[in-house]
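Entry 14. Ran structure prediction on the chain below.
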Amino acid sequence: MQRDSLWDAVNDRLSRSEFPVIAQMQPRYGEPQLIRPRLGQGAFRVLVTDTYSRRCAVTQERTLPALEAAHIRPYAEGGEHEARNGLLLRRDIHSLFDAGYVTVTPDLHFEVSRRIKEEFSNGKHYYALQGHKIDEPSDTTRRPDPEALAWHNESRFRA
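Output, C-alpha cells:
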C-alpha cells in the first residue's frame, strides 16, 4: 500500500461515526512535574562548545542547533562538568554515544559498534567515520581524559 493510500485509509476510518476523533478523546498535556535541574549544565555546554571551536569533534559540523555537549562519563554517574569530561557532538552521534553504539577510544579514534548494522540494518554514514581521529582541542589541558574514555569504552560501548 502506498503512503498516500495508507494515510487516506486511516483518515477514512477515523472519520466514521464509530471512531470519534482521537484528539477529542485524549488530553493533550499531562500533569505538571517537577524536575531536578543539573546545576552547571549550561556552563558545561558553553565550555565544551568553546573548547571544540563550535565544531563537532567527529564530523566538524558547525550548525550550533545540531550540536550538543556530551559527557564522557555521565553527570548522574559521577562525571563532572569539566572540559576533559566533554565532547562536542552532533545530536545523532551524541545519542549513539550515550546508548553505547559509538565511542571514542583513549587515543581519540572514533569507533562504531557492529550492533548498529545488526540491530538496525543501517549505519553506513557512521561506518564511514570508523577509525577516524577526532579533532582535539587546541588547549591541551582541555583534551578528553583518557581514563574517562576508557571508562566509556569498557562500561558503555556495545562492541
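The radius of gyration is 21 Å. Will compare against last week's run tomorrow.
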